[in-house]
Write a structure and sequence with these properties.
The structure is a homodimer of 238-residue chains. Chain A has 9 helices and no strands. In chain A, helix 6 crosses helix 7.
């Protein structure tokens, strides 16, 4: 892909080439930011990984700041879609939807040998050295993920998996605050331990422990959301 | 302070000047790493803040990697001493010692307007771009802080503030995983909200809710560790 394609981008195939190159730059950018963060990632390295010649960056993005902002937006949307896919799965009870998301997130980190973390967490940590415009954008991503998680926890409360006085919004915020710490620690230790300890302790803590322990019910039943599962037998921590 | 002092550092006063300069470099280094992280902090900027001429860095540290390692060690020790000061305060009940530490940590972040976070958390997040030798060093700092916190939680369990089957080591690990996420979020949002939400939810979750709610007892009583306090009246989350 050469930068000359960009001069023709009003018509068919060149437009496609332009989009492909821009896409390749975004993929390389997300990989760099999840692995090394913003400050340690050079634009030259990203261009080189995407096979784009030096000097043609500004054909694709008006500034490095705009490029970073686009990467945040893409990552946020990718993750929101992942949350929706799990939280909308009515074959599982609401808390098991959350468990499925957590398993997916674990697998995502394991796939890259725990070298890649969360782009939003990385940039949040680095805000002291980043364009101020990212601050609100990053904070809003967390609010969005929390809102989706709160919906799932509300469904869990309605299904009797949480206590009736549980506060889904607060628990969702608590979860996302801590989960970013867990991603950080798993990346540091290069293993799944911290992710799993955090999620299991969180779940054991919030899951209602005093409800009726019925017989084992297949989670794939559509009624799973309304029926107690064996997991409820686990005592609360602390 | 000039670099010439270093050539005389075997005897009295020059040795003191050498130590002072080295100390100033470490203070400026810790400030830079807590605020901007490692990748975004230049040695030149740190030298300049410490009033040390460019080019004399290697009189004080054999390499940038050794300098970073020294900063991790100092920060770890500083924080371990802070934990010991609070956790060793027998005027408070064990859980109130933890509360006192949390209040101190909040005040520490507020003092710098939430611009400075945790040096160990920042470098842990950045490990993908740092010398590999830091990985074990950083992981061990967390283990050390967790061990001190687990001792405090063991005391809380023995004092009846936690349930008899609470697992102090696991709760301490859960706390430190999540707390680093809370520091990250408070730095991002530039306010105390995430720190407070995390610590309050954590405490409400672990504190034993089924014990006798006695009359209010002054925390400063030496017997505080053995007597229930009003906080126990708070219902558990979830």
């Amino acid at each position: 892909m050469s930068s000359t394609t960009t001069t023709l981008r009003k018509s068919g195939r060149p437009q496609a080439a332009y989009s492909e190159t821009r896409e390749a730059l975004c993929r390389a950018g997300v990989a760099a930011l999840t692995e090394r963060g913003f400050s340690a990632s050079g634009i030259d390295e990203i261009l080189s990984k995407a096979g784009v010649p030096k000097g043609s960056f500004y054909h694709y993005f008006r500034s490095k700041e705009a490029f970073g902002s686009e990467l945040i937006r893409r990552y946020a949307n990718y993750f929101a879609a992942k949350l929706d896919r799990h939280f909308g799965n009515e074959l599982l009870s609401p808390l098991n939807r959350l468990r499925a998301f957590l398993g997916d997130a674990e697998a995502g980190m394991a796939r890259y040998d725990f070298r890649r973390g969360c782009l939003v967490g990385n940039l949040g940590q680095e805000m002291g050295a980043l364009p101020e415009s990212y601050r609100d954008q990053l904070a809003e991503v967390f609010l969005d993920w929390q809102a989706r998680t709160a919906q799932c926890l509300t469904a869990a409360r309605n299904a009797g998996e949480l206590a009736p006085d549980a506060d889904p919004a607060r628990l969702a915020e608590f979860f996302w605050i801590g989960w970013e710490g867990a991603v950080l620690r798993s990346k540091l230790e290069r293993n799944v331990g911290p992710l799993r300890l955090f999620s299991q302790t969180f779940l054991a803590t919030i899951e209602r422990s005093d409800r009726f322990i019925g017989p084992f019910v297949d989670d794939r039943s559509r009624k799973a959301a309304q029926t107690p599962s064996r997991r409820a037998a686990r005592p609360p921590r602390g």
